[in-house]
Specification:
The complex is a heterodimer of chains A (258) and B (360). Chain A is of the alpha/beta class and 258 residues long. Chain A has a single domain, classed as 3-Layer(aba) Sandwich (Rossmann fold). Helix content of chain A is 35%, strand content 26%. In chain A, the strands form two sheets. Chain A has a six-stranded mixed beta sheet with strand order 6-7-8-3-9-10, with helices on both faces. In chain A, a hairpin with a 2-residue loop joins β1 and β2. Chain A: This is Phosphate ABC transporter ATP-binding protein, PhoT family.
Chain lengths: 258, 360
């Protein structure tokens, strides 16, 4: 299921502005990799290049290679739609489709991709909601609007929606930043369970969260405002938080930054 | 100045025991001021022998604003008085805006309701002399429904697809050009759109048009930019996050638009279409040029002249007899009711289709 991601020499642009510069890294299959760094350093932009969502932004453009088990996402004959089916994404703010019920939200990705058999949908919806630890809370109101759930439930609904299409990789862009500590804990537990089935990459501003959930951590930084963001280092989470090899990482983690 | 007022207020408050509480006017004060202002205005108006009731009303409005200021300044202080002045100005503006509308509907109902009955709604003007009472608007209702219906069937898809292009795909020169021409089209007078279709008929078919369909085309020209504009605004209101959420699920862009973006905005889009229909239902100029008007029932919009409600009103008005004046008012009432029903329908659909936030 889970796949390895190999990034080499990747730069991303907004129009003429270079947002991230020459990033290379490997994300191991079935692991959780956390991206940390100050605001504006390009973590989210880099994350969005991993499923070709960056080019959805007007002016968004990418140079370099992203290999998903040896297949380049940016090869000329690759359809971004197929890439996004393989590499799912969960956003910062919970964004369930407001016109759809809870059931329809989870089934959206499948339906919109052509799976329509009721029985098949039912079982996938149940499995995904169970996988997102949401089934018990919503099983009696699957036909109610998804926007009626609490923030934390909505985010788990979005995770269920993303996992329902069975991607290989799950990208999470600050999935807990709009949630309270209890909902955050629920999502973090969920990440621990999901990593057996998916390769997970998570952007977070919360360093404790990175330390809790991830196997490996990448630290991004930028030289100055307006300069492109760079990957400073990537290593096992334990090492990054105890004995990083770069001084800037230690400064950032210990709060001595800036 | 400020100080004196503040002093006056604070001395009027006996031994302020609280830091925050101060003297407040009861909630009904503005109402009382309004009643007194109207009373005084009626007194002044009658006393000075002002014949126009509009003048009485304007005096009452001025007294209302001034009275509110004076009373509040005296009891609560200058800042609250300014607040009251702003509030009463807003209220006055609201009343000034609503009064003509109310007067229009009242007059139409008063003069039209006597005419509108079963016969009026189900009979045409065939073989009815304009100076005689009787006859009806059936043929005009048929004409309006068909012409507006066809115009809507043409303009709605064009308008919605144009808006989808502009919001979801449009960038660069073509989008700028389309936006510009939509803006220009919004300002086209209805007679010009009628003349355009008229000349088109002469150039392409070599004869003058005289059926409902060319009228529909002229109405569609008027309706399209309204639909484009309102749909565009509604689509822009759909949060980008929803588009991204859908795209990130591996859903192609066209399905994202048809299954996520448009359904989210469909309430507003429908409202816009309904309002555009209501707007063109009242056009008479293209009908006069292209459909010619008729006294008989013609259910075929593609052949032979038809009537329509606005044109019928005009026709009855120029006939100049008492009976035709009443028929004009009756038809006006029917037209207003038609537009009102479209508006209510738009509201109902918007309410029914709005994204649900309940169910917690």
């Amino acid at each position: 299921m889970a796949k390895r991601i190999d990034v080499s020499g990747l730069s991303a642009f907004y129009g003429n502005h270079k947002a991230i510069d020459d990033i290379s890294m490997t994300v191991e299959p079935g692991s959780v990799t956390a991206f940390i760094g100050p605001s504006g350093c390009g973590k989210s932009t880099f994350l969005r290049t991993l499923n070709r969502m960056h080019e959805v932004t007007p002016g968004g453009r990418v140079e370099g290679k992203v290999l998903l088990d040896d297949e380049n996402l940016y090869a000329a004959n690759v359809d971004p739609v197929t890439v996004r089916r393989t590499v799912g994404m969960v956003f910062q703010r919970p964004n369930p489709f407001p016109t759809m019920s809870i059931y329809d939200n989870v089934a959206a990705g499948l339906r919109l991709n052509g799976i329509r058999k009721k029985g098949e949908l039912d079982s996938i919806v149940e499995k995904s909601l169970k996988g997102a630890n949401l089934w018990n809370e919503v099983k009696d109101r699957l036909n109610k609007p998804g926007s009626g759930l609490s923030g934390g439930q909505q985010q788990r609904l979005c995770i269920a929606r993303a996992t329902a299409v069975e991607p290989e990789v799950l990208l999470m862009d600050e999935p807990c930043s709009a949630l309270d500590p209890i909902s955050t804990l629920a999502i973090e537990d969920l990440i621990g369970e999901l990593k057996s089935r998916f390769t997970i990459v998570i952007v977070t501003h919360n360093m404790q969260q990175a330390a809790r959930v991830s196997d490996r951590t990448a630290f991004f930084n930028l030289a100055a405002v307006g300069q492109p963001g760079k990957l400073i280092e990537i290593d096992d989470t334990e090492r990054i938080f105890s004995n990083p090899s770069v001084q800037a990482t230690e400064d950032y983690i210990s709060g001595r930054f800036g | 100045m400020t100080d004196t007022v503040m002093d006056a207020t604070s001395s009027a408050v006996p031994a302020p025991s609280s830091l925050l509480a101060s003297r407040r006017l009861p909630r009904w004060t503005p109402l009382a001021v309004a009643v007194i202002a109207i009373g005084v205005a009626v007194g002044i108006g009658a006393g000075a022998g002002l014949s126009s009731h509009i003048q009485w009303g304007l005096i009452a409005l001025a007294l209302f604003v001034l009275g509110n200021y004076a009373v509040t300044a005296r009891v609560e202080g200058r800042r609250q008085a300014k607040d009251k002045v702003a509030t009463s100005l807003v209220w006055s503006a609201f009343i000034l805006a609503v009064l003509p509308l109310y007067s229009l509907i009242e007059t139409t109902i008063k003069k039209g309701a006597g005419v509108v009955n079963g016969t009026f709604l189900t009979h045409s003007m065939n073989n009815v002399l304009t100076i005689e009472p009787g006859g009806g608007v059936y043929h005009a209702i048929i004409g309006t429904l068909e012409q507006v219906g066809i115009a809507g069937a043409i303009a709605t898809p064009i308008g919605i697809f144009t808006a989808i292009y502009l919001v979801e795909y449009g960038k660069g020169r073509l989008a700028t050009v389309v936006t510009f021409f939509v803006d220009v089209m919004t300002g086209i007078p209805s007679i010009v759109s009628g003349l355009f279709i008229l000349s088109l008929w002469f150039v392409l078919l070599g004869h003058a048009p005289h059926s409902g369909f060319p009228g529909s085309l002229a109405l569609a020209i008027l309706m399209t930019p309204i639909v484009v504009r309102s749909t565009e605004e509604m689509l822009k209101l759909v949060p980008n996050e929803l588009r991204e959420a859908s795209l990130a699920l591996g859903v192609p862009k066209w399905r994202t638009i048809t299954k996520v973006v448009v359904p989210t905005a469909i309430g507003g889009i429908t409202t816009g279409v309904m309002l555009a229909l209501a707007r063109i239902a009242g056009e008479s100029a293209p009908i006069a040029l292209l459909v010619f008007g008729s006294n008989v029932i013609n259910t075929n919009p593609f052949s032979g002249p038809q009537s329509s409600l606005p044109y019928y009103i005009y026709e009855q008005y120029v006939s100049g007899s008492t009976a035709s004046y009443s028929r004009a008012w009756g038809a006006a009432l029917v037209l207003i009711a038609f537009v009102m029903i479209l508006n209510l329908l738009a509201r109902a659909i918007a309410w029914w289709k709005a994204p649900k936030h309940s169910g917690r």
